[in-house]
């Protein structure tokens, strides 16, 4: 459980909230909850690798286009 306490009585609520949000993001709580939000069918290792290769190729192509100024 993430807890944030005021450093002193003069600390504003916005600063307190900002520190809390930063701790939540660093802990990775939100990402783990979002990953479990939907059910995904288990896929084979071969399919997972193939999809990862396709993702990497698309990303490389996108970066190349951005560098060339086409997009």
In short:
With 71 residues, this protein is mainly α. The protein has helices at 13-27, 29-35, 45-68.
Largest pleated sheet: none
Compressed to H and E, one letter per element, the order equals HHH
Rg measurement, Å: 21 Å
Q: Fraction of residues in helices? A: 55-70%
Count, helices: 3
Shape: flat
Describe the structure.
The structure is a single chain. The protein is mostly helical and 71 residues long. The chain has two domains: 1-40, no CATH class; 41-71. It contains three helices and no strands. The protein has helices at residues 13-27, 29-35, 45-68. The N and C termini lie far apart (44 Å).
């Amino acid at each position: 459980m993430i807890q944030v306490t005021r450093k002193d009585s003069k600390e504003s609520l916005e600063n307190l909230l900002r520190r809390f949000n930063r701790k939540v993001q660093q802990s990775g709580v939100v990402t783990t909850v979002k990953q479990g939000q939907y059910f995904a069918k288990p896929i084979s290792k071969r399919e997972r690798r193939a999809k990862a290769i396709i993702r990497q190729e698309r990303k490389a192509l996108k970066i190349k286009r951005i560098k060339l100024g086409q997009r």
